[in-house]
Write a structure and sequence with these properties.
about 350 residues, alpha/beta, UDP N-Acetylglucosamine Acyltransferase, domain 1, 16-stranded parallel sheet, 9-stranded parallel sheet, 5 helices, 30 strands, about 20% helix, about 25% strand, elongated
């Protein structure tokens, strides 16, 4: 039974309740249109009758089409047994003829998936705007904010927090991880107690171990980051291995592509990378080394060494005052020429 049967064929029964025929919407009388029992379009027919019955169907209808549903009337003529089974939930057999119908069907499926996760102990702040594929697994006590997408074979651990705008595809997220707003994670593995984002991008084949922080506007590509390391903001790490407890400063870039091939960067444990560092791969930075801010690293850095490469700074006293006087003089000369 459908609460709004418009557009569906109606199941017509006789006074004893036996099915006699199915009438399409355009061929139905006003009385038949009030019937809420609809045709789902699913049939089970004995093959010994089917081929004979199909040969007797005619296009005697408003649309001039051959209706498969007319097979019922042919079956009655041959005294074949006709049984109609009613589903408990009309949404199980809802028709999809338009993009709007398709969207409604997806919403039904999404609601069922979300309902199942909530019964299993997952908090969805707004289920109507949470999109979870049917293969996704989510641990108990995880909280999901609105406008989040979990796609493919994603697994989310227990006690996680996923903020609005996050999109996670075919990835594994460990327990107690925090995925901040508008972060994108694809085909990667995230450990326990990790913080990602906001606005972080974890690209395929990345592996991030426990207690790592990947901050805002950080892009990770095909990179392994070991336990306790940090890349807090405005950083690109590609084709790299980052050691435990290493700190990667803001504005750091691994220059991994030379126009022909990708090259690796290997950074050891407990390394300090200063802000605005360029690392020209292939290169290795040894355990405990420091790289000064603004450095361009072009060769390996030994363990516990300090790498510095900067242009010598020169301060020219009173340069600004002289420059302002020069500019003022030039403006004055231009004004005189105009007058």
């Amino acid at each position: 039974m459908h609460p709004n049967p418009y557009g569906y064929g109606r199941v017509i029964r006789d006074e004893k309740g036996f099915v006699t025929k199915i009438v399409e919407e355009k061929d139905a009388t006003p009385g038949e249109k009030n019937i809420k029992e609809i045709n789902s379009g699913i049939y089970l027919v004995n093959s010994s009758f089917l081929w004979q019955g199909l040969s007797e169907i005619e296009a005697n209808n408003v649309q001039g089409e051959y209706y498969l549903t007319d097979l019922l009337e042919v079956a009655r003529k041959y005294k074949e047994k006709i049984v109609a089974w009613q589903t408990e939930d009309y949404e199980e057999v809802m028709g999809i003829n338009t993009r709007e119908d398709f969207a409604l069907a997806l919403k039904v499926i999404r609601n069922r998936i979300n309902h199942s996760h909530m019964l299993n102990g997952v908090t969805l702040i707004d289920p109507d705007t949470t999109y979870i594929d049917y293969r996704v697994v989510i641990g108990q006590d995880t909280t999901v904010y609105p406008n989040v997408f979990f796609l493919g074979r994603t697994i989310i651990g227990k006690g996680c927090l996923v903020e609005s705008g996050a999109k996670i595809t075919d990835s594994v997220i460990g327990d107690n991880a925090v995925i901040r707003s508008h972060s994108v994670i694809t085909e990667s593995s995230i450990g326990h107690n990790v913080s990602i984002g906001p606005f972080a991008h974890i690209r395929p084949q990345s592996k991030i171990y426990d207690q790592v922080k990947v901050g805002n506007f950080v892009e990770i590509k095909k990179t392994t980051i070991h336990k306790g390391a940090k890349a807090a903001h405005l950083t690109y790490l590609g084709d790299s291995i980052i050691g435990e407890d290493t700190n990667v400063g803001a504005g750091t870039i691994t220059c991994n592509y030379d126009g022909y091939s990708k090259h690796p960067t290997i950074i050891g444990d407990s390394v300090f990378i200063g802000s605005n560092t360029e690392i020209i791969a292939p290169v290795k930075i040894g355990k405990g080394a420091w790289v000064a801010a603004g450095t361009t690293v072009t060769k390996d850095v030994p363990e516990n060494a300090l790498a510095v490469s900067r242009v010598h700074q020169k301060n020219i006293r009173n340069w600004v005052i002289k420059q302002k006087k020069l500019i003022a003089k030039q403006k004055s000369e231009k004004q005189k020429k105009k007058s």
